[in-house]
Amino acid sequence: RKEVEQDPGPFNVPEGATVAFNCTYSNSASQSFFWYRQDCRKEPKLLMSVYSSGNEDGRFTAQLNRASQYISLLIRDSKLSDSATYLCVVNRARSGGSYIPTFGRGTSLIVHP
Amino acid sequence: GAGVSQSPSNKVTEKGKDVELRCDPISGHTALYWYRQSLGQGLEFLIYFQGNSAPDKSGLPSDRFSAERTGGSVSTLTIQRTQQEDSAVYLCASTDPPSYEQYFGPGTRLTVT
After folding, report:
1. Which of A52, B17, B32, B112 has its CA 20 to 30 A from that of A27?
2. Residues B61-105 pLDDT 10s
3. Residue of A99, A102, A107, A108 to mutate, testing the B interface (most B Cβ within 10 Å of its Cβ)
4. Using CA atoms, how far apart are residues A87 and A70, in angstroms rounded to an integer?
5. Can you name the residues that pair with A108 across neighbouring β-strands?
């Protein structure tokens, strides 16, 4: 089983729709969680961190479920500019103190007019 | 402020040649990562530097790959005797503290012919 798994999609939704992505992780020792956005042929950029209590940033809501070992991203009122690949990232301390994030392969979102 | 920079942005090389890729992290960031991303794939961790500690090289795919970080700042990733399967985008990221948000450079697109 991969350490971080995401549905690759693509999720094809109309403008204004609400769309949700899930990401599962296998290591219960995982400590911090993030969603990154990657546009085509660009570098990943942080979208939002994911906190235990859940957090919201405008149209975006992230949640963490430690018991079931998944994180989610909800996008409300989708815009054309939301079209991108969304990467789930899970971080934990390794032996020796390294922090090496594990990236999911990403979920592709296409928002159409 | 200045972000992470990488050079060159594109590199085309012949199979068997050596290449050097450079990364300038954000000033003051103690942690530096190298990843590679093949077309349509997720980010593959290569190597991690944290302060003056020994680097975590657990992601390097073969002994043809090496990296160094001089003075806790600039890093160079070297690929010796390049192979066609080395063709990918090589991304560098820096962060501080190491458990938090990663700032990525624009990447170096390596093509081995």
Report:
1. B32
2. 999 999 999 887 999 999 999 999 999 999 999 988 766 789 999
3. A99
4. 13
5. A85
